[in-house]
Amino acid sequence: MKHIEERLKDIVNRVFEVDIMEKTRRREVVEARMVYSRILRDCEFMTLSKIAKSLNKNHATILHYHKNFNYFIKPDERLWDMYLLCCRIYTETDHVANALDLEECRKLIFSLENVIKKLTLDISRLKLDYKTYKEKETTYSPLYNLIHERVPGSRVDEITRKLNTYLNGIHNYKK
Fold first, then answer.
1. What is the pLDDT of residues 52-98, one digit of tens each?
2. CA nearest 40: which of 86, 85, 75?
3. Per-residue b or e along 38-66, where b marks 16 or more CB atoms closer than 10 Å to that residue's CB
4. Across the chain, which distance is largest between two alpha carbons, in Å?
5. What is the mean pLDDT of the chain?
6. What angle do CA 70, 59, 79 make, to 5 degrees?
7. pLDDT digit string, tens, across residues 23-33
8. pTM of this structure
9. Cα–Cα–Cα angle for 97, 99, 102, rounded to 5 degrees
10. Of 8, 9, 87, 89, which has the most beta carbons under 10 Å away?
11. Spatial CB neighbours of 100, under 8 Å, sequence gap ≥ 6
12. Rounded distance, CA 65 to CA 77, Å?
């Protein structure tokens, strides 16, 4: 797998149609370097020195790029769109699946299929629980409403004990 810097260089070079390693001060190359350094700084949190080393530049040059990024890139709609395109390509292709070989991909697929099966079973169980709850709610709705209307929250424990005693009496009486 390519190093982060090499991968990003390829992306920026393709989008800007330049070589950012070329020793030149042409505007389009400098703008491409600005985009490259900004993405590494924002997405990878690289130090200025490390970014500078990857471009064979001084860290002060990278600092200058960052200080002037908002003045050069943001106001220019075409450059801003190219920057966003580079960011999108870089972040979208930076996925774990891109680093896996065929056997690892197969294992990942089987693992994910098992997760899907488990989640499907969980959903079925939850639907059944919900159906049972709805049936109970329909059956005991008048009782729930009566308790909700007539029992203040501060007396729930006391009323629960009294109801339990009353219902125990009914249960024992039927025998």
1. 999 999 999 999 999 999 898 888 899 999 999 999 888 876 555 55
2. 86
3. bbbbeeeebebeebbebbebeeebbeebe
4. 99
5. 87
6. 30
7. 999 999 999 99
8. 0.54
9. 75
10. 8
11. 108
12. 18
| Structural contact between residues 140 and 132, judged by C-beta atoms closer than 8 angstroms | no
Q: Which two tokens stand for residue 21?
A: 């390693």
- Give the C-alpha separation, 38 to 33, whole Å: 8
Residue 62 to residues 55, 65, 81, 147, 171: CA-CA distances in angstroms?
Answer: 9, 5, 21, 70, 83
- Domains (range + CATH), the chain: 4-98 (1.10.1750.10), 100-174 (no CATH)
83 vs 119: CA distance, rounded Å: 39
Give per-residue pLDDT as tens, 139-164. 888 888 888 899 898 998 999 898 88
Question: For 17-31, 120-134, 152-166, which range has the lowest pLDDT when averaged over its residues?
Answer: 152-166
What is the rounded (10 degree) CA torsion for 143, 144, 147, 153? 170
pLDDT confidence bin for 99, thresholds 50/70/90: low
* Residue for token pair 């200058």: 64
Distances (CA, A) of 146 to 56, 143, 150, 163: 79, 5, 6, 13
